Input
Amino acid sequence: MDQYGELRDYILELRRSNPGSTVKLEVEDCDTPSSMTRVFKRIYICLGPLKRGFNAIGRDLLGLDGAFMKEPASGFMLTAVGLDSNNGIYPLAYAIVESECYSSWLWFLELLARDLDLTEMSNFTFISDRQKGLIAAVGKVFPVAEHRFCLRHIQQNMKKYWSGVAYKNHLWACASATTVPQFERRMAEFKDFSEPAHLYLSKIQPAQWARSHFTGRAHSDILLNNHCEVLNRWLCEARDKPIITALEYIRTYLMKRIANVRTTISKSKGPLTPAATKMFNNIKKEAMKCDVIWNGDDKYQVNGHHHDQCVVDMTLRTCSCRKWELTGMPCKHAVAAMLNMSVYSQDVVLESNVHPVYWLSTWEQTYSHTINPVKGKSEWVKSPVPTTLVCPKKIPTAGRPKKNRRKSLEEKDDMVNKGKLSKKGTSIKCSRFGIYGHNVRGCPTGGEGLKRKQASGKGANKQSSGKGSKKKEKTGNGGP
Output
């Protein structure tokens, strides 16, 4: 693997082309210090433009995920992905480590905390799929952080014991509740439906999967770690390439993505981003169906069309449904109260009450920090480090190396796979003879044997006719 020997040169070029970037390389412990070779262990990259762009978003939320590297590379790829003002992915940092374990996650998170100037008491929010060692690492580096668990991951674990749409609907109903009383009612309904499943779910802290117990620090009520899955899908081709080629694939993708988003921003009209505008327009439509009663001061009683009654405090900018607090975007009750304010000659600009994280100007500022290209390999400055970096030793495994990851139960049962509808649960029909139970490739000889078997089962004594029977008569194998 010649690219490991050039990795230090690549790091120097990356730091030169993108000032402010953090690139950390770690090697295995060497028993003989005089040796002129060092074995690669880990590399962490957080590009300076991404660091500055993430700080401009103002949303303290990061998704953490890991994916295995394929041949010829080895190890795992760790990623930290945020959400931008348009609710799109914003990759921040990535690393290639020896394995997905506590020590590698701890090393990754400590570097991430240094890049974002976070301390042990920082009120940050993470969401993950509960990878190996990650929960303990987050608790060590960020003991007061809010650590959410992807609800799909919880559902997949539950599905091993309790499968079915009803269990899924109860789980999502509990997780989607935004207030504690509503959450407790739905949990009680789940207990009446299945006490063992309710007991399993009760062992997981609600603050890690239920909106009713989330704080509003992240300005997002997401329950899924989809933004990390999206990035992993785009970087799938990078995971089966040599080390520098893989790292350059990631950097090039990020560079092109920022350029594409900037093009979209130039065509957008404010004051909110396109995704936020669509969300807020839907909220305004729902607000038109609400009834509002003003108390003469700064509070409003709002009745929704589903007989929900909430209290909106315009001074504190809160609603008792907590959606405004969770997302940073006024809920239908708050918007209804604002529309009522205009009736009493109070000038209100609805969009001005949306948190700045959703503003078009914030989106523009985020993507004003662009990633610079790098020179070709022949132009790289040689590293002054005298030792040569070599690839890590691979532990041979039985069988052919696997390229695809192990699919979850939900993915195996998914009716749609790669754009094609699964035939699971459907009856197979032979296109030649119209007989169910096999296809044309697995059709018995001429199909006549199966036809006669079906006819005899029904008590039919009629002779079969057709091309197949005539052929048998000519060869002397078909009797009357």
Remarks:
- Confidence is low (pLDDT under 50) at residues 408-421, 459-480.
